[in-house]
Specification:
elongated; 7-stranded mixed barrel; binds zinc ion; alpha/beta; 10 helices; 439 residues
């Protein structure tokens, strides 16, 4: 038996849906560094000179490999992040720096969901839709098309986990139709291969867990529904306070006259090879090089924790230390995969235009066309915390964001040649900045 949804409620919801439609209800990129195309750098700037794969580039790439492969996922506040911190600390120490592990609290948004199908191996990763309640539900897996009102007519979904396709009607209307028909939970299949980021909107009163899955999981899940499989849905939304840490390498005299930084944490479920084992590997190699060079005078090196969840590491650092007198801050975030898509090429992300233009000039002198640019609107990185504290700061960025925050951000999708370019440019830039500092 199908419970007809209360017409009055549906009418309200259609109205609400239309309102939501006007302000974008059916998926918006999540926060952080989304792989959106940047409008600020209209042209693809690609390297013209082929970089020499120096021993330094080999070392930086080996650090990347250790962080991405030997350690793996490094989500804020986890053992993986702590293991990576210990690795970076050991490298800074080996290069002769006095090392401090500076802990801080990070507020982590928990936004996690899993689907377990009886007899079908480990849990499938899903993402709760915004506004979905936390909870657990088990029942038959039943496919109900797009989840429009008519799709439930004559369909028994009492106590079932309802599987729906994305599209045509809003997520909220799909979920209400399912809930009104007696469903215990809802899974929405994305109509694109990747993960589904979406929202039910506010105040819908939906009381059953509603999650989204990547489009590539559509066919196997629909087949399991036809086979009458049993599913268990878990959705966990909330926040948690975790302890993370920055790893700081200071010269023996302990004085910091300028900073270099990179975040070493990753999002869950990825090796984070480009984001940001690459920047951390480059940072460690630059620390080694700088310790033996004049231009290393007064340089301090910081590996930031908990960047992916909201720049917590760099914010904690500038709150705990007076950085306002620093000459500059260079941040490295994703430096081992030069983006080829329009607007997705390498660039210096300006916290400070003059510093970014100087970096672009230095790169040009080496034969690398790398312009000043910016991140997409809803993205940022750790230079921003220093910019806000009044320090001329930039992020060095290779572009290449198509795989970030996905399991495809692996060793196979990063390149030592690209990392070598940023090593060359960074050393030349540090030499130039030292000249300017000592004139
Ligand atoms: Zn990053």
């Amino acid at each position: 038996m199908v419970k007809r949804a209360s017409r009055a409620l549906v009418a309200v919801l259609v109205l609400a849906a239309l309102l939501l439609e006007a302000c974008g209800d059916d998926s918006a990129p999540a926060t952080g560094e989304a792989p959106a195309t940047s409008t600020a750098t209209p042209t693809v700037a690609t390297a013209t000179a082929a970089p020499e794969i120096s021993a330094g580039a080999e070392r930086a790439f080996e650090h990347l490999r250790v962080l991405a492969i030997d350690i793996g996922e490094r989500f804020a506040g986890t053992d993986g992040e702590r293991e990576a911190a210990a690795y970076v600390a050991a490298q800074f120490e080996a290069a002769g720096y006095s090392v401090a592990i500076e802990e801080f609290e990070a507020q982590i948004q928990i936004n996690d969901a899993t689907i377990e199908i009886e007899g079908e191996g480990g849990p499938i990763r899903a993402l709760p839709l915004g506004g979905s309640p936390s909870g657990e539900a088990s029942g038959r897996l039943v496919f109900a098309g797009l989840g429009e009102f008519a799709d439930f007519e004559g369909l028994d979904v009492e106590g079932a986990i309802v599987l729906l396709d994305r599209g045509v009607v809003t997520f909220a209307l799909k979920a209400v139709n399912a809930e009104e028909s007696g469903a215990a939970g809802v899974i929405v299949i994305n109509n694109e291969p990747g993960d589904l980021y979406g929202t039910l909107g506010r105040g819908t009163g939906i009381a059953i867990p509603v999650v989204g899955v990547a489009g590539r999981l559509g066919s196997p899940l629909r087949a399991l529904a036809v086979a009458g499989a049993e599913a268990t849905l878990r959705s966990d939304i909330g926040s948690d306070v975790r302890t993370s840490q920055n790893v700081v390498g200071r010269p023996e005299d302990g004085e910091c006259r300028a900073y270099l930084g990179a975040h070493y944490d990753s999002v869950p479920d990825t090796e984070g090879a480009n984001d940001n084992a690459s920047g951390t590997g480059l940072l460690i190699e630059l620390a080694r090089v700088a310790s033996g060079e004049e231009f290393g005078d007064g340089l301090c090196f910081i590996a930031f924790g908990a960047e992916e969840v909201g720049l917590f590491g760099s914010r904690a650092f500038v709150q705990a230390h007076d950085v306002s007198e620093a000459a500059f801050m260079l941040n490295f975030d994703m430096v081992a995969r030069i983006g080829q898509r329009a607007g997705d090429g390498p660039r210096f992300i300006a916290g400070d235009i003059a510093l970014a233009d100087l970096a672009a000039a230095v790169a040009g002198e080496l034969g690398y066309g790398i312009p000043r640019g910016s991140f997409p609107a809803n993205a940022s990185s750790d230079h921003a915390s220093f910019s806000e504290a009044g320090v001329p700061a930039i992020t060095v960025h290779s572009g290449g964001a198509e795989f970030i925050h996905t399991p495809r951000d692996t060793l196979e999708t990063v390149f030592i040649e690209d990392l070598a370019i940023f090593l060359d440019v960074s050393i030349a830039l540090l030499e130039r900045l030292f000249e300017e500092r000592t004139q």
